[in-house]
Amino acid sequence: MPELPEVETVRQGLRKLVLNKRIEKIVLLYPKIVIGDSSLFKNTLEGLTIKEIGRRGKYLLFNFTEGITMVSHLRMEGKYFVRNSDDEIEKHTHVIFKFTDKKELRYNDVRKFGRMELVRTDDVFNLKSLKKLGPEPIASDFSTLDFATKLKKKNKMIKPALLDQTLVAGLGNIYVDEVLWMSKINPQTIASHLKEEQIKTLHDAIILELAKAVSAGGTTIRSYTNAFENSGAFQFELNVYGKTGELCARCHTPIKKIVVAQRGTHFCPNCQKVE
DNA sequence: AACGGTGTTGGATT
DNA sequence: TAATCCAACACCGT
Fold it and tell me: Which intervals hold domain FPG-type (predicted)?
């Protein structure tokens, strides 16, 4: 499911739903979702209150009282929603955060790939997974110059380079295909071969596209919903992802799908020529 | 009905 | 060090 726009939309919904709620009890139906000692996870969180919910890249950061943070990654299909404590437990619910007001936050994940982990709030950005993240894709953090310098050193195709989160945080398979189409860059172009002008275009497309997707509440392909269980609307703005065989909006050439770095990759063979 | 593909990440391998 | 491959899991469409 979720790339940066979806995670951000989930974050905004969760803030409205669970901020300042106190956890009375944690129920772990599938403890493997938790990284580290699951009893410690449970014992630590019981009694704490959710004070803020942040985001870094595709990671949600739940800040609790007592200087504790839960780092949560939804991976492919993780989702959070709120239920009453007497509502039936759905099939793929794995973690339940029961609040003192008889509401509960439930973590649901069909594929069980998502993970959550407790760390001291002061140590969050020392986590290996967060430490490696590149800048947030907003103009104030994401410098064109720095992006260009790093790309010139990458002896790797641009698509996997953008997916690995170190050049810029938050892009996944959908938005990478979209921003490359926007920038007329072939996904198999070696990053170091990109021209100055293309890098600038790509940089700006990343910022703009992700901002637009956040405004639209993210992209729902099959299962993504936000914390209120609403779908996003950005799927209607996509130009290449899932459009195999449909005509390119710019030049009317059929969109092609290939595999690049083990990921399905959609592009226009006419607009996005290899450099 | 079996098989390949699915929005992600990180550990193993080279 | 860095690039590449693949497992973790369940479901869906062909």
Answer: 239-273
